[in-house]
Task: structure prediction
Amino acid sequence: MRGLVQAFQLIVARDPALFEIVALSLRVSGTALLFSTLIGIPLGAVLGLSRFVGRRLVIALLYTGMGFPPVVVGLFVYLLLSRSGPLGQLHWPVIPSLFTPEAMIVAQSIISFPLVAGFTMAAVMGVDPQLRQQVQALGATRWQTTLTVLLEARVGVIVSVIAGFGSIISEVGAVMLVGGNIEHRTRVLTTAIVLETRKGNFDLAIALGMVLLLLSFLTNVIVLWLQGRTFDE
Amino acid sequence: MSELIYQLRNISKSYNGRCVLRVDHLQIHRGEVFSVVGPSGAGKSTLLRLLNFLEPPTSGYIRFLDAEFGPDRPMPLELRRRVTTVFQRPILLSRSVWANVNYGLRLRGQRDSAPQVKAVLEQVGLAGLAGQPARTLSGGEAQRVALARAIALQPDVLLLDEPTANLDPYNVGMIEDIVRRLNRERGTTVVLVTHNVFQARRLAHRVALLLEGQIIEIADVDTFFQSPRDRRTSAFVRGEMVY
Result:
């Protein structure tokens, strides 16, 4: 109960430390979600709508990715980006360094894009296959047909994005490994909760947990509100 | 009726090596109602898919107006959009009736389509349901929306694939009436695929019998039904064909 009260107090008092952590959490997870949506929705649409050699293998890899432990993704990204790693040693400006928000974005993008792609694929495959032929008969180009199928599968596609967001906003293992939980730099809600719990500050940990829950809830409410009419159909 | 809109030569269509359609020669005239009758599985729907350029033939060419469509020659989008199909089982978009009818016009980037959509909805007797979600309609109403979204495009050719199968007599009569008027008033070429010989007789100028992927006989509607040349046509017309 004290945690709840403290969460409320922190929010009302516009606690700068809390707002910094929340802002970074949203920036990292929001950017990662943007990348995974940009990659995942087209990939899911292609896998759901076309047949090509190796499709089954790609789907099998995707399903594996959907169940991949985030901490393993974190380890993978850590090894890639570390100074002696295959990407880290290139010293290219576009390749992020370890213990930066950008490295966390890379890890979270890898975690969430299989979910976005996999759920999008399932949603697209759930649309009556006859629809494609019928819209083509009405004069749709290939691109217009794909877009129409995606719009018909919009509820499933939205769910895929929500699932993608849910998987990264609450993720701790990967961001802890590649971000390092550095104060004012890479500390996000989940890593802050771990730290406060270890320090014995259970009230603050609960407060941060409540903020995380609230954030997740608000995001879903906003998405549902934006798509209200879609869900009502 | 002399101008040819379609010319098919040595067309074949195979799926997984199995030939389901073989048409050596077929001509369809501009402005006619041409009906293809035959039992289920005869290749009627396959023929319509080829005529709508949805799939290329395995061999042979379809000449449509000035263009040729074949295994290695896709039909230009502009010409493909002059043909459309109403399917036996219409799949409507999960949007309003209005949005469904407007869909093809939007694909073509047409603005100010409202008067056109309104007129077509009135034509099919669905003006009162314009705002209704299309998926809540009855089978007959859904088929009329499918017909409306097709005729809103003012196609040169309207392909109908068993458009009234499983519909009640009221909707059958209404759809037939719309097709008849469209042909008479706008000169739209209609290719009607049906296993209902009575419907073919009511609507068509010429009729073809398709059996096992091959055209058995083509004749004007009176000859086809009153004095067919082939005994299989006689049997099919009399409803005696066992299949």
Observations:
- Chain A has a mean pLDDT of 91.
